[in-house]
Model the fold of this input.
Amino acid sequence: MNRSLLHETDQVFVKDGERCWFVKLGEIRLFESVGNYAKIYFQSNKNPAYILKSLNALEERLDEKVFFRANAQAYRNLRLIEKIEPYFNGGLLLELKGGEKIEVSRRQRSSSKK
Done:
């Protein structure tokens, strides 16, 4: 099985009810953990959709120059951050271009600065 890194131009298969399509990774703002699935937010869709992959499985394949694990439940696209603010207990609050707000844990904050 090929476990190479996925790049911004690579596509993932997305299912939302009966609708299915391929989405380029560069268009995805956010991956959120929902059990064995990942909820994804992307440019061309206002509502999130799902892929049958856990965040742990995705972590092995996502390019850390593009996607950063903000906390235990979310990966966010570094290139689609709109605003960064200080947050509770030494963390950060990120606002993405789609309006989603994600907390970066204090532990992950030092990695996010890089």
The first strand starts at residue 11 and ends at 16. The chain has one domain: 11-113. The mean pLDDT is 84.
